[in-house]
Amino acid sequence: DQQVKQNSPSLSVQEGRISILNCDYTNSMFDYFLWYKKYPAEGPTFLISISSIKDKNEDGRFTVFLNKSAKHLSLHIVPSQPGDSAVYFCAASVRVIYNQGGKLIFGQGTELSVKP
Amino acid sequence: DADVTQTPRNRITKTGKRIMLECSQTKGHDRMYWYRQDPGLGLRLIYYSFDVKDINKGEISDGYSVSRQAQAKFSLSLESAIPNQTALYFCATSDRGGPQETQYFGPGTRLLVL
Questions:
Q1: Residues of B whose CB is below 8 A from A4
Q2: Strand, helix or coil at A38?
Q3: In which element (H, E) is residue B8 found?
Q4: Do residues A12 and A113 lie in contact, with contact meaning Cβ atoms separated by under 8 Å?
Q5: What count of CB pairs under 8 Å joins A to B?
Q6: What number of other Cβ atoms are within 10 A of residue A67's Cβ?
Q7: Of A54, A106, B71, B75, which has the maximum CB count within 10 A?
Q8: Greatest CA separation for chain A
């Protein structure tokens, strides 16, 4: 039972345009959401996060939007650059069990290709 | 120098063999994790440890065991490897004092079980 889903395995975008990566979740107890980025032959690296008390968090070219009623979050990259080409993982956690710490549930990943 | 290192980076083994994957970190973090990545399934948690004396099962611990030899070292063992354990394995760490979800990953170990 996949609690966090990324339904698009891949996305191709032209350089300079907006990339939108989507993620859906089923567990209403999730209260913290993150995006990780992964290059080939490297481990995932933390990109941006959002608490469930917010609906938007922005960090430079990266913005994450959260729609709790739809159980949906998205990552916007504007403008997209060739160096953004990577696999992006959405992840979620339940912080009310914070003392159990760091138990992330990951989506399947979306491979983004930004073409020059 | 990498903060989280994994050895070996690649490993081919045969069904029934016992193998160990090792993870070391220089970040001084208390919490360490082992994940596996499979195509179409994302990353799934195998085991995690909050300190040297603490070991916890994750989503998919069957067929695996772990050892936390020191704060900086966390190893994953496959007691009797089977082909469906072929996957990419990642170790990760997080800081007790910071957001636990901000985990720092090693480069991964690619394991093939024949």
A1: 42
A2: strand
A3: none
A4: yes
A5: 61
A6: 11
A7: A106
A8: 45
Kindly state the average pLDDT of the residues A86-108. 78
CB contact under 8 A, A102 and B48: yes
For chain A, the helix, strand and coil percentages under 3-state DSSP, each to the nearest 5: 10, 50, 40
Using one digit for the tens of pLDDT, what is the confidence trace for B13-49? 999 999 999 999 999 998 899 999 998 888 999 999 9
Residues A89, A72: Cα–Cα separation, whole Å: 14
Tell me what the mean pLDDT of segment B68-87 comes to. Answer: 96
Instruction: Report whether B60 contacts B44 (CB < 8 A).
Output: yes
B88 touches A at CB < 8 Å: no
**Among chain B residues, CA nearest to A87:** B42
pLDDT for res A101: 54
Please tell me which residue of chain A has the smallest CA distance to B96.
Answer: A101
Task: For residue A29, give both structure tokens.
Answer: 């107890």
Residue A97, classed as helix, strand or coil, is helix
Tokens of A100: 């159990």
Contact A31, A15 (CB under 8 A): no
The first and second tokens of residue B3, run together, are 């903060």
pLDDT mean over A3-32: 94
How many Cβ atoms are within 10 Å of B97's Cβ, its own excluded?
A: 8
